[in-house]
Amino acid sequence: MDLNTVADVRDARLREPWQPGDAWLGGGTYLFSEPQPHLRRLVDLSRMGWESLSLGGDGSLEIAATCTIAQLSRFGRQFTPRSAPLFEQCCRAFLASFKIWNMATVGGNLCNGLPAGPMISLTAALDGSCLLQSQAGSLRSVKVVDFITGAGRKVLDEGELLRSVTLPARALGCHTAFRQASLYGLGRSGALVIGTLDPVDGSMAVTISAATVRPFRLWFPLPPDRGELRRAIEVAVGEDDWYDDIHGLPEWRRHMGFRLAEEVRHELTRLSRDGVR
């Protein structure tokens, strides 16, 4: 879609004062999908030269905001940690063509803040941290689960940039379980639940997204029983936190959230009992 209010596109490498009507341009798949009458200038990140994916010396993984879904998918298929299958599962949770895969970015998916954003689900479940850069150049780190505050709402200040997301080595080494539900065979996620089991200390985390306005990550020092998990979800997720749109009513999303959470709990608890490392 043409954005007929945009009068200028600037290279992000050329530092210029942020102005009202400015927006960061990554892949542009959301920006060009619907009218943006409030925008006057796009600041293009495509030439920043950030390495899409880089492994740290401590085994962590840094994903640049400009990394495309196609790049993440290819990397995930060659990745060796226990959590590797989760990358492709979340990439496949996109309601998107291959053309979108080659343009849409991880950072764009997070910054849209939509409940069904599968990169939000992936990075929240793996205890990711966002690196944010202000217009003055200062940096701050925010957990993904705290970065998204509601449907389409983030903690970004005016002109602030999401630079990258880092996934810690400990989380990458976890066993994972993935469940997704949609009202349609190829529809947008109505509920997406990811469980992780840490083989080091036996702790478990269950992350609920898509069904809720923001991701909720529940951590347990040991795998919970069914009742404990249900009570934890009831305490953490309020009635107004279950999302409501054309892709699912809150009552259905709540039901699927509890159901899928129990399924991942059961799958990972079985691994724990079997002593799988």
Q: Domains counted in the coordinates: how many?
A: 3
Strand order of the largest sheet: 4-5-10-6-7
Distance between the termini: 50 Å
* CATH fold topology of the largest domain: Uridine Diphospho-n-acetylenolpyruvylglucosamine Reductase, domain 3
Helix content: 25-40%
What's the architecture of the largest domain in CATH terms? 2-Layer Sandwich
How would you state the average pLDDT, rounded?
Answer: 94
Level-1 CATH class name of the largest domain? Alpha Beta
Number of strands: 14
Number of alpha- plus pi-helical segments? 9
The biggest beta sheet reads: 5 strands, antiparallel
From the structure provided, what is the oligomeric state, counting identical versus distinct chains?
A: single chain
Topology record:
Layout: E1 8-11, E2 22-25, E3 41-44, E4 53-55, E5 61-64, H1 69-78, H2 84-92, H3 98-101, H4 106-112, H5 118-125, E6 129-133, E7 139-143, H6 144-147, E8 148-150, E9 153-154, E10 161-167, H7 169-172, E11 175-181, E12 191-197, E13 204-209, E14 216-220, H8 226-236, H9 250-273
Parallel strand pairs: 1-3, 2-3
Antiparallel strand pairs: 4-5, 5-10, 6-7, 6-10, 8-9, 11-12, 12-13, 13-14
Helix pairs in contact: 1-2, 2-5, 8-9
